[in-house]
Amino acid sequence: MKIRLGNVILTSVAVGVGLITLLGYFVAELQPVRAQLLAWGSLLAAVAVLIGALNLARVHTRKIMEQAPGWGYSPFMLLGFLAALAAGAVAWLPGQSGGATTNFASRFLFQNILGAGGAALAALMAFILVFAGYRLLRRPPTLLNVVFLAAAVVALAGLLSGLAGLPPEAAAGLRDLGTWLTQVPAVAGARGLMLGIALGIIATGLRLLLAMDRPYGD
Amino acid sequence: MTALLQFAFLFLFALLIVGFLVLGRRKSARPVLLRRIEAFDHLPATIGEAVESGRRLHLSLGSGVIGQADTAATLAGLTAATQVAAQAVVSDKPPIITSADGSAMLLAQDALKAVYRQQNAAERFDAGAARVAGLSPISFNAALAPLVSDEAVAGNVVVGAVGPEAVLVAEAGRRAGVPTLAGSDNLAAQAAFLAAAEDTLLGEDLFAAGAYLGKSSAHVASLRAQDVLRVILIVVILLGVTAKTLGVLP
Fold this sequence. Notes:
Chain A contains seven helices and no strands. Chain A has helices at residues 5-23, 31-66, 74-89, 104-138, 143-160, 168-183, 185-209. The radius of gyration of chain A is 26 Å and the shape is extended. The two termini of chain A are 12 Å apart. Chain B folds into two domains: 33-214, Rossmann fold (3-Layer(aba) Sandwich); 216-250. Chain B has a six-stranded parallel beta sheet, sandwiched between helices. In chain B, helix 6 links the parallel strand 4 and strand 5 (180-184). The model of chain B has no long low-confidence stretch (mean pLDDT 90). Chains A and B meet through helix 2, helix 4 and helix 7 of A and helix 1, helix 3, helix 4, helix 5 and helix 6 of B.
């Protein structure tokens, strides 16, 4: 197997920095080094945001130039991109208060375009989920589907028990059942899943530290 | 004491991974049987459909940001995307990888380039195939919905730090008759995908992609270590519950 010098250097830097950062949690003497490495990491993350924004602009510019399918949306994206940049630059004008993201122009864009668009999409998500739940009923029943739907129906019935015109005892029983279902088996199941996810996350980190996974270089 | 326990746990975890890796590479080692995950079973058919129909696969790493809490999920998504891309690059339209972070996009470009190089097709690599689709979770998923029809997508593989808003992609896929495999480390997203996507990775299944799709020995060793630690944790929890019930613990 051919070993590239570049990959050896990249792996050594990644493993070394990772180990120092991890050991910084346990060894007090390493904490200043860990803090410095994290500060450099934050700086690199900020550069990555810029690279991401430039890549986004490049993808849409290319789409317009090639008149690729759906290119009609791209000018709006680029206009929005430039408007957000201009809104951030307003903070540098003389007599303006607030930073790049808190001045009046940025706040206006956020409240009237980003916020409104986000709220509309969130509302759309609610509809999609309701229809998806309905489609689940039409799928061939599997154990997972049946448990999922039964739990959803009982939990919803518990929430709506006060509105259904049921006798008070039955409504209270339904409410208690819904509460028990969401607070006991659902929480137990969620904790089990979270435990598995946490183990998966730690395993991913350890594979990186042991240089078994190298998402950099090839 | 807590720090020492945490360190001991990490050390044991690392030791188990290395141990299982060494054991797995012995000549006399028996092949490891992995439990069936339906979502991964269906993936070869989706890849085959993409290759035969001359359409492309859309692989998404989700809206996670490298360097923050969702780094591991994003890297798990990158592993899945790389393994799927390795099988799909022969298609007329090569796969695209979308992310919401510059670092993740750069890693995806690097991984895709390596896949092309390994298949002796470096000249077909297009840096634009790994791209940022949006910088916030909502804008990212809103941008992915039209991409399904615009890019002639034959299948979506959305694995990584994905929130419930990714149902927008699953719904766009459903309307276009395109299957979606979705996996996330977010429980609310997993519940949403169970209803909206064709195939869902539940629990820690998304971290198993490397073992299932690439048969990587390091990933298989890591899965075995996870299983051992899971059993240890269950025993500790049961002992704690028993001790608390019997009044041994305060």
